[in-house]
Amino acid sequence: MTASSTSDGHTPANAGARTEDGYHRGLGKRQIQMISLGGAIGTGLFLGAGSRLQAVGPSLALVYLMCGVFAFLMLRALGELVMYRPTSGSFVSYTQEFLGPKASYIAGTMAFFNWAVTGIVDITAVALYMRFWPVFSSVPQWLFALLALVLITGMNLTGVKWFGELEFWLSLVKVMALGGFLVIALVILALRYPVDGHATGLHLITENGGLFPHGFLPALVLVQGVVFAYASIELIGTAAGECEDVKSVLPQAINNVIWRIAIFYVGTITLLVLLLPWNTYQAGVSPFVTFLSKLGVPGIDSVMNVVVLTAALSSLNSGLYSTGRVLRALALDGAAPRYLARMNKQAVPSAAILSTVAIYLVGVVLNYFIPSQIFEIMLSLASLGILSTWCFIVLCQIQLRKKIRRGEIAPTSFPMPGAPFTSWLALAFFIGIVGLMAFDYPTGTATICAIPLLALALAWGWRRIRSVPQHNAVPQTVPSVVLTEDFLVPHEGSDRS
């Protein structure tokens, strides 16, 4: 494998090598930076911001800012963990080390649950977006869902470099779309050009109910919805395990996330409410389409449909990548069936990826039978997985810092700022969001009511795993690199690093 060079012209010593978990270090600085950038931009902004503006008005910018700060703190906690020990098992591996096998099982299962149901949402979204164009209106929805799944599965099985390359270009489309909007919006504001007969500026906020037109409480409750717009930004920690030069790339990538949140979310929402009255935007319609259509731009609906289609494909791509690594980490820790640790000759966890795809195929079937009912249900269920993932990341960082203070572990070069206070504050914020979900009737309330059932399912699964004879489980005393070599196909022996 040919090692790639860094931006300064030097080739990292470990470029193209295997990690201790058996993965190739195939992701370069360009790809890691774009994954971190694209992970913070999803359909929650492109499509969901319209309904949220309708619900709370201009205060949505403040809600995005607050949630963005805590999402960034979670990323800094993950960054400290990665700098201590990079791993493609990501937070599941850290949970095993700092919180024990049962916590690792719960963390990994909830993460898998989150991405599994989100994947069904994503393939449904892709199918819906494709049918937007009249030429495809006669094509069955389930067929587009299946084609999207085949494409993303192929890219993930081919190798991590192909995954990174696809995610780079998908993220680039999203970034360019937002960048184009920001330029157009700033020019219109600077020239005081009227939009849809309205003069632009701050008066559009003050003359339409102020920052909180519906009061403070609706904005507070909306926090539980907005925080999920940042879901998948933690993917940068998983991808770092297969990065060629993680020590220099990761800190910069994480630190850049905060200003990207400020520009892409807070800045974008602020511009939207300065260009048109907030009540112009509608649920189910991208606010960018609403704004640009008021300018009389022809074909803008098709352009934005391509962008949201790209966002859905990017989410599906990232989700399949993440679940493959999470499931394999669970298998290596003895908390999942042994076969999930198998890798193909491209050093990709093929067994875990294909197992996830089997669940996604259920989504294809659901697209055939109930195409319109599954979207909101799956999104609500995924929210529990997202919050649990973030909570486990922060809990692991808290334990890491305790060991550092006791002198058991050397301090990292990328400590979380303000810890342990900021760690506990972030944890309290994420737990508080779960409480707010109960007030989001009916989907949020139903999700909270489902927690006891989910807990019973987790307990049943844990008992089943513990009851498996030891020779069928992955031995805890065998290093993961030895296990990886055991699972590699025989003809790959001459190519091992």
From TrEMBL:
Pfam families listed in its UniProt record: AA_permease
All copies of domain Amino acid permease/ SLC12A, residue ranges: 32-467
Keyword Repeat: no
InterPro entries for the chain: AA-permease/SLC12A_dom
Gene3D superfamilies: Amino acid/polyamine transporter I (1.20.1740.10)
UniProt-annotated stretches for the region Disordered: 1-22
TM regions (residue ranges): 34-55, 61-84, 105-130, 142-163, 175-195, 215-236, 257-278, 298-320, 347-371, 377-400, 421-439, 445-462
Bilayer topology: Multi-pass membrane protein
Origin: domain of life: Bacteria
Record key words, sorted: Amino-acid transport, Membrane, Transmembrane, Transmembrane helix, Transport
Places the protein is found: Membrane
Protein name: L-asparagine permease
